[in-house]
Amino acid sequence: MLHLKEMFIILTMQEKKAIKSSRIVRPAVFVLLLLCPAVFRGSASDGAVATIDVRKKYQKIEGFGGGFMFNKYPFFHPKKDELYDSIFNKAGVNIVRIWNAYNPQEGNMVPEIPMMTEILEKWPSVKIIFTAWSPPAYLKNNNSLVGLIVRMAGDSVIVDSATLKKDSDGEYIYETYADYWLQSLHYFKRHGVTIDWLSIQNEPDCAIGYESCALESTESATIASYGKALDAVYNKLHTEMTDPPPLIGPDLMGIDNNRIERFLAGLDRNKLDAYCHHYHTGFYPDWMKQTAEFCADKPIYQTEFLINEGQEWGGWLEHAECINNALTIEGVELYCIFALAYKNASTHCFFSLDTNWGDWYETRPTYYMFKHFSKSIHRGWRRIDAAANGASVQISAYGSNDNDSMAVIMINMTASPQSIALALPCKTGEWYQTTDSLKYQFRGTFNDSATIELDGRSLTTLDLRNGPDCRTVSVTTETGTGAATAAVKAALFEGSGTFVTLPVSRGPFSATLFDLRGKRIASTTADKSSTAGAVRRLFPHAVARGAYICVVSCGTVTVQKNMFVTD
Fold first, then answer.
1. Considering the domain 67-293, what is its CATH architecture?
2. For the segment 106-146, what is each residue's pLDDT rounded down to a tens digit?
């Protein structure tokens, strides 16, 4: 027995009944996700149900990347080509965050320039975030790159935050600071490296015992103002450059305790093209939601964070959950880890390197985790609406503007494995998984539907594209007025066999079924009906179980609906 029901529906193996929802007008842009109940090994389960609706699109993705800084990166490593290939080719990283080590007074050569020149020659789509952990010492009130001032007051040791210098009139040297940035940008450009984004100060809210510089939301007698420094740099670059890079900020250490609100209140938000921050003080969903609401007028970038293995926050899978929440709750468009490669024994990077004594390097778990996002989610794609009714399985989806390509990311935070059956008509591809023992492992192919095995504590990516001969169906929708329009809008598809039942007051009418690749499956027509009531027509042959597009015409009215045939 076959039934035709107005769609969309989600089926569970236990219930096997259609759940009717609202009609969609452009079903070719809708992808149905069917999930069978989770199958736990050795136990039963109610399962998880999820939907993906590409009609609902959110932020545009800019990319995924990380930092190369402090001269601890593959440029000096004997196996740099192998490392670069792993980062930019195999993992698809398309953003590098570098520090500004140029000192205009010394005219020093900066290794970031030949490094980025090499990278851009092979991977020209890579973009650069340019920032400073500290401006040169000549601009600081402690004449040092270090962010602290240690002094004695009697027998006590006093530690103050280092900031910009003051001039002879007691004013902070904002203009000299802005000139430093102008000269740095000119120097990089003369040597063939164009900057894509500029953040004037990394973590201005945190002065510490390494390269750093304190800037506060408002100027005080002891700390310079981030807002005034930003104004000076913005004005200098827009006055003396024809193509100044976009400014992003305030690049804070965290989003707790209203840090973002406090800093943005002290600056002209029009001077920034995007807001950026880190998660080093915590990444709680409530904080992300609050940040998203406060920063809704511009893109949001997360420019530095990584959970070091062994921390109280967890490890690589908890970081995957953090990235998923950043994308879905806060709506970030760009996500960077602290370091793509860093020093020997480092745990907050893709690769920890021995750059001093040999060609050794170690691949960290973060590399495989991050690859699930950076390899399959491409610049210019948008996040697509995706939801699951079980908290243990987190899901997000991303796709190209034409929906021809898509990535679905699933996180199983529990120790128990789950099996999820996905029906994504018109899509083909592969799926990959990372666990403590699997490292971005190919697990199987996908063609319209497949059962995805989510191992306990696993991260899984479904990398999808349109199948052969996949195309959409275009129809004119809801033209005409009067009783015919109302009748077709109210049409329900029901009955037995492969009948279609339409309550119409006038005709003629026709109903045509297409599969989701646009292939015509069946059609039926009827002559004009002069009285109200149901007209029942039989399709000329049986229709197989599955998802379809049904185009119904009655008089001058045409309506397109998603249909599902189920036994």
1. Alpha-Beta Barrel (3.20)
2. 888 899 999 999 999 999 999 999 999 999 999 999 999 99
Handedness of CA 87, 88, 93, 95 (dihedral sign): positive
Q: What type of residue sits at position 251?
A: D
For the entire predicted model, the pTM comes to 0.80
* Residue 24 phi, psi (nearest 5): -115, 145
Q: Cα–Cα distance between 419 and 450 in angstroms, integer?
A: 10
| Domains of the chain, residue spans | 29-57+384-466, 67-293, 483-566
List beta partners, residue 549.
514, 562
> What does the alpha-carbon distance between residue 285 and residue 289 come to, in Å, rounded to a whole number?
6
CATH says 29-57+384-466 is which class? mainly beta
Are residues 433 and 394 in contact, defined by beta-carbon separation less than 8 angstroms?
Answer: no
Q: What is the DSSP string of 469-484?
A: T--------S-S-SHH
Is it true that the peptide bond before 468 is cis, omega within 30 degrees of 0?
no
Euclidean distance between the first and the last CA atom of the chain, given in angstroms as a whole number: 5
**Spatial distance between the Cα atoms of 5 and 547, rounded to a whole number of angstroms:** 10
Instruction: Give the C-alpha separation, 440 to 424, whole Å.
Output: 22
Q: Backbone phi, then psi, for 58, in 5-degree steps?
A: -120, -135
